[in-house]
Amino acid sequence: MNQLAKSFSRFSLLLALLCLIAFTASAQSNRKLIRSGNKLFAKENYRAAVPFYEQVLANDPDNADALYYAGISYMTFDKEKAADYLYRAQKIKPNVDRDLEYWLGRADHINYRFDSAIEHFKEAQKNLRRRDEERREELAMLIQHANNAKREVANPKDIFVKNLGGVVNSAYSEHSPVISSDDNYLLYTSRSSEATGGTPARDGEYYEDIFESTRTGEDEWSPTKRVSGALNSAGHDASIQLFDNDTKLLLYRADNNGDIMVAERQADGTWGEPKSIGTNINTKHYESDAFITKDGQTLYFSTSAYSEYGDLDIYVSKRNSDGSWAAPKSIGSTINTPFDDDSPYFADNGTLYFASTGHNTMGGYDIFASKYDSVARRWAKPVNMGAPVNTPDDDTYYRLSPDGSYAYLSSYRIGGYGEKDIYTINYIRNVRVQGQVFSKVDSMAIPGVELIFNGQSADKRAISYRDVTRPDSGFYQVDVLSGRNFQVQVSKDGKQITTEELEVPMSLNDTTTIVRNFYIDYVDTTATRGGIMAVKPIYFDTDESNLRPESVSELDRVVAYMKANPLVNISIEGHCDSRASDEYNMALGNRRSDAAFDYLVSKGISPKRMVTVSYGERRPAVPNTSAENMQLNRRTEFKVLERADQSNK
Fold first, then answer.
1. CA atoms within a 13 Å half-sphere pointing along the CA-CB vector of 182
2. End-to-end CA distance of the chain, in Å?
3. CA triplet 615, 629, 492: central angle to 5 degrees?
4. What angle do CA 213, 219, 222 make, to 5 degrees?
5. How far apart are CA 367 and CA 407, in angstroms?
6. How much is the CA Rg of the chain, to the nearest whole Å?
7. How far, in Å, are 160, 293, 352 from residue 385 at the CA level?
8. CA distance 379 to 335
9. Is 348 helix (H, G, I), strand (E, B) or coil?
């Protein structure tokens, strides 16, 4: 027994020793993998660094160091995973790194957890050394960015932001959308694996190349391809702007630290060799983006050449008589900040749009807008375009479509295909919904009916619009946001009568009107008490007073009503739209009221029970702003006249 016990003891000791050796080897291997990842991490080659950290986590899921560095790395292309990894690292090892609170704040910020981000930034401030003044200023700025984002996200603009789709966007960065003047040809920049040479750049991403696609449907694009010819080089190349009737292209090339180039379309449709835009624009410093105005005489561009701290500023240059560009001037401190101001775009409406990491950004680059006051000769204070145009991360390369109804944008936001994607922003307009409410029983127009249009904004918030039908016509009118469904709640005297669905199509102009009448189970028993006869108006063609067939049907209802109510007297009121002079319309209104009067007399109604009046164009039912509205104003209405024995009651 003793010998057996000794043998077992030696076996246990040997097993423990082997486990210790294996554990030590595994720990050494993990440390080596982390060091390899950190070398790439230090070069900002995050995609290449992540596999080393993930290999460590496959061996040791609770390795806080690997979780920490992987979490920071994932912030460049997987925001949600970044936050998950960083919080796991904190839970396992709260002191894994003195900058942990800083990175938790950054991760929460880009994931829209602004209050939490602010708390982490404040904790990071407590951990600063006295000499960390630069980081102290950065944290104060990040807290302000989080507050800006919180405010903007809480008050979003009611617009739709839509990803351009997986045909164009990939797991890599897509940006710099350039659209042709007919809105059917798209150039953009991608860092996908299909870029020139397929060899990653120093940061682990593939080199930027210019790609193209053509529109095949309203929201559909043909399979994209790298632009053939001379546009793409072995380094970074990026699209900027089509101009001169789409025959020329501004582009960025990484030559000389980054220059603005011009290429011309050849007779065979390919692009020629890019050439420098000129020595007054390109310097030995970084020129990143540019825009030529529609008249071809002004160039806005971004450069680091004149900045004290190497940040990007926007400069402007005028074209010389020989076609070259003059020495540039700063656009001014109203636009330029001590931070990066980039991607200028001057729209046809006189607005300058640009991207900036300064001003009141929500975080990273935001899109701002400013107009030039030609009288005061200065730019207006830039306005943040707000959410959902801007996000807590980078939003750049804002360009309006040719008709200005929507915009293209490059952005890194949750729900995309990977890094930056190209999005469209639809600027939806209001639609006017108008009509009348009638009784299903007797087809009479009903005054005093409340209509509430309930729907949702683009960010799913409840919205509602209300109107009450007019006492003289049962007419209502509301302006609602287009491109959504509404539930219309119809009530009378505080009691809900019905709820109906109304689909309002998307509208991109300011003059769309939809006519929708409602027919409800209700009889207005007070129709003759307040000086109103609840019947439909009759309508006329332009400049006409002849009765339409449908008008005769309505007049027959008036006849039946008056014969059933022999004590009722009525006023017949003629109205017009605003197309002719006031004098002419007064006469036309008289002819329209007389036409109804004559018909009622022919049906046996005593002329003594009726009076006629013309208001011409002076009492429109609706504004004369569209053909539909003008039709509603070409009408004759009927009102009950108050009897003498009722006047003092």
1. 8
2. 122
3. 85
4. 25
5. 12
6. 36
7. 13, 21, 12
8. 8
9. coil
Reported residue count of the chain is: 649
Nearest to 635 by CA among 550, 567, 556: 550
- Spatial distance between the Cα atoms of 584 and 580, rounded to a whole number of angstroms: 6
| H-helix or E-strand spanning residue 91 | helix 79-92
Burial class (CB in 10 A: 0-12, 13-18, 19+), 98: exposed
Closest CA to 405 of 226, 160, 229: 160
Structural element, H or E, at residue 438 = strand 430-439
The two three-digit tokens of residue 147, written as one number: 């507050």
Q: Which helix (H) or strand (E) holds 578?
A: none
C-alpha atoms less than 13 angstroms from C-alpha of 215 in its C-beta half-sphere: 13
Pair of tokens at residue 70: 């992987």
Q: What average pLDDT is seen over the chain? A: 88
Paired residues of 638 in beta bridges: 572
Closest CA to 210 of 193, 200, 225, 222: 225
What confidence tier does 120 reach under pLDDT thresholds 50, 70, 90?
very high
Taking CA atoms, 512 is separated from 239, 606, 632, in Å, by 36, 44, 15
491-511 average pLDDT score: 85
pLDDT tens-place string over residues 586-635: 999 999 999 999 999 999 999 999 999 999 998 888 888 888 889 999 99
Q: Which residue has the higher pLDDT, 561 or 388?
A: 388
Residues 6 or more apart whose Cβ sits within 8 Å of residue 446: 437, 438, 439, 469, 474, 492, 520, 522, 524, 534
DSSP 265: B
Q: What residue has token string 């200005």?
A: 404
- Give 373-404 as a 3 state SS string: ECCCCEECCCEECCCCCCCCCCEEEEEECCCC
Cα gap 614→592, rounded to integer Å? 8
Please give the helix or strand (H or E) that residue 329 lies within, else none. Answer: strand 329-330
What confidence score (pLDDT) does residue 25 get?
A: 52
Q: If we measure between CA atoms, which residue out of 258, 265, 263, 248 comes closest to residue 281? A: 258
Bridge partners, residue 200, by sequence: 206
Q: Give the whole-angstrom CA distance, residue 35 versus residue 40.
A: 9
DSSP 255: G
pLDDT digits over 67-83, tens only? 999 999 999 888 889 99
In the block, tokens 């991608």 appear at 190
User: What pLDDT is stored for residue 614 in this prediction?
Assistant: 93
* Pairwise CA distance, residues 36 & 52, whole Å: 7
Residue 470 confidence (pLDDT) above 80? yes
Look at residue 587 and give its three-state secondary structure.
Answer: helix
Query: At CA 331, angle to CA 329 and CA 332, rounded to 5?
Result: 110
Sort 592 into a burial class: Cβ within 10 Å, 0-12 / 13-18 / 19+: buried
The SS3 call for residue 346 is strand
Q: Do the beta carbons of residue 552 and residue 599 sit within 8 Å? A: yes
**pTM listed for this prediction:** 0.69
